[in-house]
Amino acid sequence: MSNQFTSTRIDDDLNLLSDTLEEVLRSSGDPADQKYVELKARAEQALHDVKDRVSQASDTYYVRAKQVAYRADDYVREKPWQGVGIGAAAGLVLGLLLRR
Fold it and tell me: Where does the record place it (predicted)?
């Protein structure tokens, strides 16, 4: 799943949640009103779904970041001088960018 697709899907979910909650707030608020009960249930389900998706997305990003860090660590341990060179080049580029 691409980041663009995930971001768009989460945005759509948040919009759906917002629309549902606005509809709940506009309703009479009478617990005896069947429409209010249905809207409240939809809002609670939408909130639960969005929380699950956001949690899954953050877990996925955490795992990916951890894998990248491990790969970088392994690379530097296997080829220390190349790691030093890459670090120096990155520092030079960052220094030039910050100077401007």
Answer: Cell inner membrane
Contact 57, 87 (CB under 8 A): no
Amino acid at 71: R
pTM beyond cutoff 0.70: no
Tell me what pLDDT residue 27 has: 65
Burial of 16 (0-12, 13-18, 19+ CB in 10 A): middle
d(CA 27, CA 14): 20
CB within 8 Å of 67: residues ≥ 6 apart: none
Query: 29-60 burial, b for 16+ CB within 10 Å, e for fewer?
Result: eeeeeeebeebbebbeebeeebeeeeeebeee
